[in-house]
Design brief:
Distance between the termini: 30 Å
Order of helices and strands: EHEEHHEHEEHEHEHHHHHEHEEHEEE
Low-confidence stretches: 360-370
Mean pLDDT: 91
CATH class of one domain: Alpha Beta
Structural class: alpha+beta
Number of helices: 13
Helix content: 25-40%
CATH superfamily of one domain: DNA polymerase, Y-family, little finger domain
CATH topology of one domain: Dna Ligase, domain 1
Radius of gyration: 22 Å
Strand order of the largest sheet: 5-6-1-7-8
Strand content: 15-25%
Number of strands: 14
Shape: globular
Length: 371
């Protein structure tokens, strides 16, 4: 019998700030960019549950979060406390949480800074698996003074969906025989890979919940969504054969910057990109990697249209000069008619390196923050 668990820390960044600043307990908290009185250019990293009552959530533009806070204040509610991201501290606490998991489990796969999959098959029953997870949640609460939500299911897909259903501090168990019934009433957006665009396409044909989606055959879904249709056919039936893997390594290292003012000033953009490349190389070395083969540039315009372009080198390199040259080559078309025929101003640029090598070994996937 295969049993998989998924642990998701509750409002992780904000919860750490509440824990370490008792005066903030019970106060709406947001961790993210500086709002600059509603003129800030970044996004929300995470918000505690009190702030979410105002409609604030991860990835929301910080300027909009500030406006929602102002609306709440004008209605007599406490305004949001805006805090900067302290990634080094969050990473340290994440390490403690992962260590706690490994005291109880043999096989743990960190999926991001605040979530992890783990194999519970050795429990041989869902009853014992649930008991183990309650002990894990209790240990995290006692040792870190933080709460976590856990999902248990026959595979990673079901475990992850289950962990998100009863937050905060939830524990949801979905046995194999209950998978179809569990998924049936959930919104189609619950399925990983179904974003706003796919959700809207399905809504136009009367499909809003997962059960509705099952009326289409595999070929019909393939016709609607291309190769992704094959994957969706399995997911809406709760199928997932992906293993829980102990190592979940970094597959890319990157930096990005949202500018204070939208711009097409080429000298400014070039200077910022050069600086970002230097930061990327420092991080590459700090993370223990020696070479990269692919350079990826991302540009977001003032209207939020976002494009990425990449170039794969013929041989791996660890040269800052090569990185800067390749990044500049990818940027230049966005400053003229080739990639920017309407002359749009640039809001954000980012650069990252992929196809990493660590002492000659290719690496795979990053720890990233999740909601």
């Amino acid at each position: 019998m295969r049993i998989v668990g998924h642990l998701d820390m509750d409002a992780f960044f904000a919860a750490i700030e509440e824990r370490e600043h008792p005066s903030l307990r019970g106060v709406p908290i947001l961790v993210g960019a500086d709002p600059r009185g509603g003129r800030g250019r970044g996004v929300v990293s995470t918000a505690n549950y009190r702030a979410r009552e105002y409609g604030i959530h991860s990835a929301l533009p910080i300027s909009k979060a500030w406006r929602l806070s102002e609306v709440a204040r004008q209605q007599g509610n406490p305004p949001v406390t805006f805090l900067p991201v302290r990634m080094e501290r969050y990473g340290e606490v994440s390490g403690h949480v992962m260590d706690t998991l490994r005291r109880f489990l043999f096989l743990v796969e960190p999926a991001s800074i605040d979530e992890a999959y783990f194999d519970l098959s050795s429990c041989e029953s869902y009853t014992l698996a649930e008991e183990v997870c309650r002990k894990i949640k209790s240990a995290i609460r006692e040792e870190e003074h933080l709460t976590a939500s856990v999902g248990i299911g026959p595979n990673k897909l079901i475990a992850k969906i289950a962990s998100g259903l009863c937050k905060p501090d939830g524990l949801t168990v979905v046995r194999e025989e209950d998978v179809l019934a569990f998924l049936s009433p959930l919104p189609v957006r619950t399925i990983p890979g179904v974003g706003p665009k796919t959700e809207a396409e399905l809504a136009r044909i009367g499909v809003k919940i997962i059960k509705d989606m099952r009326r289409f055959s595999q070929e019909e879904l393939r016709g609607m969504f291309g190769k992704r249709g094959w994957d969706l056919y399995g997911k809406i039936r709760g199928r997932d054969e992906s293993p829980v893997e102990e190592t979940h390594e970094v597959k890319s290292v990157g930096e990005q910057e949202t500018f204070e003012h939208d711009t097409r000033d080429s000298s400014f953009l070039v200077e910022r990109l050069r600086s970002m490349c230097e930061d990327v190389m420092r991080r590459l070395s700090a993370d223990g990697f020696t070479h990269f083969r692919r350079v990826v540039l991302t540009v977001r315009f003032a209207d939020f249209e976002t494009s990425s372009r990449s170039h794969t080198l013929s041989v791996p390199t660890n040269s800052l000069t090569v990185l800067q040259r390749e990044a500049m080559s990818l940027l230049m078309p966005f400053l003229d008619d080739r990639e920017n025929p309407q002359g749009k101003l640039v809001r954000l640029i980012g650069v990252r390196v992929e196809k990493l090598e660590q002492f000659g070994v290719h690496a795979q996937a990053p720890l990233i923050e999740s909601e």
